[in-house]
């Protein structure tokens, strides 16, 4: 009888705790939604239905309406509710309208804040998440999404390095203990010896980042890495419009798309990378210099999926999975920031803040405090959606911004 009770207790205990997974995907959507074919949001819906991402990171998003198309159409079949980050224009190069963005499962993730890291070429977006665990011990996830400079040559490699350094420098400002980090994007790396790739892996970084697949080498035009290649999905770009709007051709022979992760995903007992889940989604590993939907490229990824990927973009998505060894909170809500950084939060001259005027209570004032709680500045909002705070003559140190309408607080550093 005692054994029966013990077994029953163990069953109830184990069944009461359900492990969760977090599926991550990065995808270069190629000038979405402007490039052919039309109605690509429906093609994307079929792709997302198959993978079911919880964190969907993208680049080459043309407009805010494009973001809404993905949220309201491409993600409509997901089991859990989704939200997206705020769409803010590129500050580094206003002439280049293509943006990065994240979409996320609100049952599993809460977006706490976001900011842009201006670089020499394009902005890099940083998104700060909390995972909705039931315990009082939060799990922090910082997500960086980038689209680095393309093309070969020393000058382009140097530009990519400088862009990566904007992220590795920002790692110094992540002060929450055991913060998890993902750095995803179209990196346009041709080989592992590139300075930008080596900078990501630099063991001297404030938070150690690693390549989950650990496959160093020369990836371009190398059949040994065919399982990792993400561009181009097409041997020919005929039928996809003309010129640059048609995308790249030549078949799968480049590893341009990455998701890098912090080393603690391999050591943590709370949130862990699931071994062998990092994939070039849709690449069966036998498609070197071929279109992804070539009938000779059969394998675990179906012909129907590969047809969709062929039509959707000249890139393949990259995916990976994480196991959460804790229960999720039963009550979660989408937290849309009231204020957010439109500039980097580390600067020597000015800080630019975006303000959400759609709230029931719209902020009319911003208050800036120093590290010891003294108010150093009051800023009138005056119904503006963007505020510039000049900090050039302030003392170096840590500052905090609050509003008079909500509890939102942002931290920035004056260099």
UniProtKB/TrEMBL annotation:
Pfam families: Por_Secre_tail. InterPro entries: Endo/exonu/phosph_ase_sf, Secre_tail. Residues 364-409 form the Secretion system C-terminal sorting domain. Residues 1-18 form the signal peptide. Keywords: Signal. This is T9SS type A sorting domain-containing protein. It comes from Paenimyroides aestuarii. The lineage of its organism: Bacteria, Pseudomonadati, Bacteroidota, Flavobacteriia, Flavobacteriales.
């Amino acid at each position: 009888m005692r054994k029966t009770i013990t077994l029953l207790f163990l069953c109830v205990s184990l069944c009461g705790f359900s492990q969760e997974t977090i599926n991550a995907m990065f995808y270069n959507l190629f000038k979405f939604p402007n490039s052919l074919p039309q109605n690509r949001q429906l093609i994307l819906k079929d792709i997302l239905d198959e993978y079911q991402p919880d964190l969907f990171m993208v680049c080459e998003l043309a407009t805010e309406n494009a973001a809404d198309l993905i949220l309201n159409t491409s993600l409509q079949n997901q089991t859990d509710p989704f939200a997206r980050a705020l769409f803010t224009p590129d500050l580094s190069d206003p002439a280049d309208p293509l943006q990065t963005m994240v979409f996320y499962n609100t049952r599993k993730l809460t977006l706490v804040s976001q900011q842009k890291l201006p670089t020499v070429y394009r902005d890099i977006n940083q998104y700060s998440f909390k995972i909705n665990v039931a315990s009082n011990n939060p799990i922090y996830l910082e997500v960086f999404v980038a689209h680095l400079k393309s093309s070969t040559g020393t000058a382009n490699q140097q530009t990519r390095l400088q862009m990566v350094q904007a992220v590795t420098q920002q790692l110094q400002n992540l002060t929450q203990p055991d913060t998890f980090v993902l750095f995803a994007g179209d990196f346009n790396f041709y080989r592992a010896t590139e300075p930008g790739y080596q900078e990501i892996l630099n063991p001297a970084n404030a938070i150690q980042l690693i390549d989950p697949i650990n496959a160093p080498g020369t990836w371009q035009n190398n059949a040994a890495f065919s399982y990792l290649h993400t561009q181009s999905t097409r041997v020919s770009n005929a039928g996809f419009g003309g010129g640059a709007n048609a995308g790249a051709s030549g078949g799968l022979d480049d590893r341009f798309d990455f998701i890098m992760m912090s080393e603690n995903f391999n050591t943590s007992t709370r949130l862990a990378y699931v071994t062998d889940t990092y994939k070039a989604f849709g690449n069966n590993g036998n498609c070197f210099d071929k279109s992804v939907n070539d009938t000779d490229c059969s394998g675990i990824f179906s012909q129907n999926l590969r047809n969709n990927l062929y039509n959707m973009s000249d890139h393949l998505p990259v995916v990976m999975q994480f196991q959460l060894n804790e229960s999720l909170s039963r009550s979660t809500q989408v937290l849309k920031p009231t204020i957010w950084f439109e500039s980097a939060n580390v600067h020597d001259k000015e800080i630019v803040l975006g303000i959400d005027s759609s709230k029931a209570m719209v902020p009319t004032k911003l208050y800036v405090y120093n590290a010891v709680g003294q108010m150093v500045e009051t800023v009138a909002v005056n119904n503006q959606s963007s505020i510039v705070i000049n900090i050039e003559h302030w003392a170096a140190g840590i500052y905090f911004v609050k509003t008079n309408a909500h509890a939102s607080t942002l931290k920035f550093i004056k260099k």
